Amino acid sequence: MKKLFFIAAAMLGVVSLSAQEKTTSSQFGIKSSVNMSSFNGKDIKDNDYKVGFSAGIYGHFPLTDQFAVQPEVNFTRMGGKYKDEVTEVGNATVKYKNKTTLDYIQVPVMFKYYPAASRFNVEAGPQFGFNMYASNKQQTSTYANNMVYTTEKKVDVKDDVKNFDFGVNFGLGYNVTDNINVGARYYMGLTKITENTDNGTQVGPDVKNHSFSFGVGYSF
Q1: Can you tell me the distance from the alpha carbon of 101 to that of 136, in angstroms, rounded to the nearest whole number?
Q2: Which residue among 99, 124, 132, 166 has its CA within the 20 to 30 Å range from the CA of 66?
C-alpha cells in the first residue's frame, strides 16, 4: 500500500513541476463520484450494472490557455452483476446470479482541452488500477417440483483477480465556478481482470472492467 501511494505521489509531483514551468495557476482539489460499472467479455452472457463510488484527490496543471493535465489518485469501488448459464440436475433446474465487488486504488492521468478557453472541457487519458479487495456474492436458485430453493454465499476472490488493471478514460467536464467542477467519464478497461493458474488456465470468467461515472470536484 505504501508503495502505491509513493508512486502516485511521485507522479503528481513530476507533473506538477513540469506544468509549473509554464504557468503558476495550478490547483489541487478533492473529488467524489458515483459510478455504474459492469464487465465486458466473451464469458459474460447476461450482465448488468452495479452502483459504486469513488473518492480522491487531484492536481490540475494548465499547460496553455486551452490545454491542461490532471493526474488523480482515487479509491474506487466497482464491479458488476452477471448470470451463469442454467444447468440441469436431474429433474431440477439451477440458475446462478453473481454480484462481484472490486476495490481499486486508481491513478488516472487526464489531458484536458478547453475549447476557446471556455469553462467546458473534453478529456482523455490512461488509468492505472491496483486491486485492493475482491469478493463475489453468488445466489443459487434451484427449481424443482414447482418449488424454488434459494441460497446465497459470499466468497473472497482476491486471489482470482489480477493486482493490476489498465485502461483509458474519456470524459466531459464543466467548471461551475473557479473552485467547483462537475464531469462525466467513461472508463474502458484494456486488460483482463481475472488471474491465470500456473499452467495458464483462466480462473473465472474472461472479462474486463468498464464503467460510467458522474462526479463533482472542489479545487483549493
Answers
A1: 6
A2: 166
